[in-house]
Amino acid sequence: MSESGHELSHLDAAGHARMVDIGEKAITAREAIARGRVVMQPATLHLIVSGGLPKGDVLAVARVAGIMAAKRTAELIPLCHLLNLSHASVSFTPDPAGNALEIEATVRCTGQTGVEMEALTAVSIAALTIYDMCKAVDKTMQIDGIRLIAKRGGRSGDWQRPESA
Fold first, then answer.
1. What angle do CA 17, 147, 105 make, to 5 degrees?
2. Whole-angstrom Cα distance, residue 102 to residue 162?
3. Which of 157, 161, 165, 129 is nearest to 145 (CA)?
4. Rounded distance, CA 27 to CA 30, Å?
5. Which CA distances in Å does 146 have to 51, 137, 155, 165?
6. What is the pLDDT of residues 109-123, one digit of tens each?
7. 95 is catalytic
């Protein structure tokens, strides 16, 4: 049992890793929203926003990378179910005061399990893509705060991170 008092669903009675059987779960609409950020030098943020980096449009490439990653989460994370996503989006908000680029991913499907991992993977890969495209001009970049913001649907119902309410 975990510290929260809940069973870890990806472990069997003997403590071995297993894929959760979702065959008996109801098909419902599911949504998850995740966020993270890439902290960088002010000049790097300016180059991203103005489109002045030699590798091209960083935000367009990172957006596509995040969406592709959401669609391929089951190939990246062991024991995740392959889901038929109905929506995946990635957006960016510059934060000049924090010298950062905020990333948000929203993922939806109608299915038997949630899309939290897909949203978190989208944010993670978008952040890594930003790092990759900008590392030549700023090796000090830092990826921070990747977290689930909200989830909707499923047996456990809706949940929202208190700081985001």
1. 105
2. 18
3. 161
4. 9
5. 25, 23, 24, 17
6. 998 888 999 999 999
7. no
Give the tens place of pLDDT for each residue, 60-114.
999 999 999 999 999 999 888 888 999 999 999 999 999 999 999 999 999 888 8
Residue type, 111: G
* Measured CA distances, 99 to 12, 47, 159, 165 (Å): 45, 12, 30, 24
Q: C-alpha distances in angstroms, 68 versus 41, 73, 80, 138?
A: 27, 9, 16, 25
Q: Please name the helix (run of DSSP H) or strand (run of DSSP E) that holds residue 45, with its range, or none.
A: helix 42-50
Q: Is the alpha carbon torsion for 40, 41, 42, 46 positive or negative?
A: negative
Catalytic residue, from 12, 95, 132, 144: name it.
Answer: 132
Sheet holding 100-111, edge to edge: 85-95, 100-111, 28-39, 142-152, 159-160
